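B., you asked whether I could sanity-check this one before it goes into the benchmark set. Here's the sequence:
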Amino acid sequence: MKTRKPLADSTAVHDQIYEAIRQALITGRIAPGKGVSLRSLAAELGVSPMPVRDAVRRLVAERALAINPANKRLSVPSLTADRLEQLSMARLWVEPELAARAVANADASLVRQLQAIDADVDEALRLGDVDRYMTANHAFHFALYERAGAEVLLAMAGGLWLQVGPFMRVVFGRVGADGLVADRHAEAIEALRARDPEGARRAIAADLSEGMDKMRVAVEAGNGATIGAAP
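And here's what the prediction gave me:
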């Protein structure tokens, strides 16, 4: 009979729970402005509160979640104008650099993969399917970024998407397909084909700037206060 390894199994479960909550944040399925309890989150995932508690600790440390000290409810941290400005600056430092570095490692299979994902993005926009758009948009960016061979920058980009994902969903819900016109993804793909790192950098920088500008408009519409203050 084989010896069981409970620690390894436990670690795998904890990692799976962390990844599930992380993806929910990145794709905006945990909405800003809505407080949730640890128990309700555990029930939704079909697990005990313990691995959820550990995952939440990690996500709080990454500034993706906050805990209300008064009632212990979890929420996405509010997006203030100052925080948005910092996130915008950080994304524009990190992500275009990843795109530029990816060009050296790009091949025909990556181009085909990105074209297929971008077609899914376009279809989601046509249908107004928020879940599909958020998932496909994230998949496009990180399929590109992973080719950069820059683990430190990739981890930074992942952390930034954790913090902006919920608000990207809010913005998409407000502007719909009409608010996302220029296909910067197609421009990035063309830059890969042309082996043009600066073209890839420009395309991704423009893509990010346009999305973050829409978040800025949303913050300003709240009289410069916040998006996502939770009870």
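One thing to flag: DSSP finds nine helices and four strands in the chain. Otherwise nothing jumped out at me.
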